[in-house]
Amino acid sequence: MVTNKNNPSVCVKCGKQRIVVSTRTEKIGNSVVTYQETSCPDPECQKKVEIFLAQEQEKRHISFLQRQKKFAPKV
């Protein structure tokens, strides 16, 4: 597989080179930050990745709520 130096990102499921879907640039203070949204070139694989990421985000949110509840001051 040939990697693109401008986009070294690979899909976490299939390992294919991800493609840039959109790019935006934002000035923050004296710096210019460029954001790139990438996607797997295989639409079915991308759907699986999105489901996986949503599940991981939900796990983190539940963990956060449990920690918050555990360390909340008792009234």
Give the end-to-end Cα distance, rounded to a whole number of Å: 59 Å
Name the overall outline: flat
Quickly give the structural class.
alpha+beta
Residues in helix, %: 25-40%
The percent range for strand residues is 25-35%
Quick one: biggest sheet?
Answer: 2 strands, antiparallel
Number of helices: 1
Number of strand elements: 2
Mean residue pLDDT: 89
Strand arrangement across the biggest beta sheet:
1-2
Describe this structure in words.
The protein has 75 residues and is α+β, with helices and mostly antiparallel strands. It has a domain at 19-70. The chain is 37% helix and 25% strand. The chain has one helix and two strands, in the order E-E-H. Strands 1-2 form a two-stranded antiparallel sheet. Strand 1 (19-28) and strand 2 form a beta hairpin. The radius of gyration is 18 Å and the shape is flat.
Name the descriptors.
75 residues, alpha+beta, two-stranded antiparallel ribbon, 2 strands, 37% helix, 25% strand, flat
Summarize, please.
With 75 residues, this protein is an alpha+beta fold. The chain is built from one helix and two strands, in the order E-E-H. The chain has a domain at 19-70.
